[in-house]
Design brief:
The longest helix has 17 residues. The strands form two sheets. Strands 1, 2, 4, 5, 6, 9 and 10 form a seven-stranded mixed beta sheet that branches. Strands 3-12-11-7-8 form a five-stranded mixed beta sheet, with no helix packed on it. The N and C termini lie far apart (41 Å). It is an alpha+beta fold. It is built from seven helices and twelve strands. The structure holds 2-oxoadipic acid and magnesium ion (MG). Magnesium ion binds next to β1, β4 and β5. The site of 2-oxoadipic acid (OOG) has 16 residues, from β1, α4 and β5.
Length: 262
Amino acid sequence: MTLDDLTIETLAERLESCQLQVRDTHRITDDFPGMDWEDAYAVQAAILARKLARGRRLAGLKAGLTSMAKMKQMGVTSPVFGWMTDDYTVPHGGEVRTAELIHPRVEPEIAFVLKKPLRGPGCHIAAVLEATDFVLPGIEVIDSRYKDFKFDLKSVVADNTSAARFVVGGQPARVDAVDLRTVGVVLEKNGEPVAFGAGAAVLGHPATAIAELANHLGRRGQEIPAGTLILSGGITEAVPVRAGDHVCLHVQGMGSTSLRFV
Ligand code: OOG
Ligand code: MG
């Protein structure tokens, strides 16, 4: 850590205020070029603490920048991890109020729900599959609090990996009923297919993203509790959306989920 508690708290307040007031800001690494990963995750944790103190509840965890398409789109090279609170949840087929977001984009993802806790280090695909209750389609709505959606890794970690909204739905599948590497995904916007991919786009197998999250938390003495919903990361590049758009994600063998921007 290079930043003191007061600075961490000030940065958390700055980023959360941008989210709540729907305005962007410059990268925090512009002000603190020497900040390290622990600083970045400490800012992210301080934002969560602010929300929990106001009565919000944790609704899930996420891995991001887990596919080549996403890393290339954002110009970065390694996965990042974050969280979603209950107010980020959109019901299956529900509405997102676009005026509450800065410059939203949508991502096709596979969501995991655990029946057993996972703890790293040493967590691997097999442990993840054994601990998974079911998988299902998930659309993540990301909304970077940084100007023009441009950031470096530490800035985006501090900004809770651009998390904003998400929907899950469709047909939950057991992990032995689908091949998560070859499973095909089609993302449609207003009835037009706009992005396609297969599960293997995420680190070769989406369960790897969950294992990496468990290992990341394990290094901090934390685990992923049983029952946790986890988004494993965008399979394709993220697609910009605006008010009036309807977005639907089809995942082979797992049905569809959708949301509408109003
Ligand atoms: C960072 C969050 C990336 C994903 O699924 O790759 C992410 C961003 O691109 O703004 O959630
Ligand atoms: Mg995502």
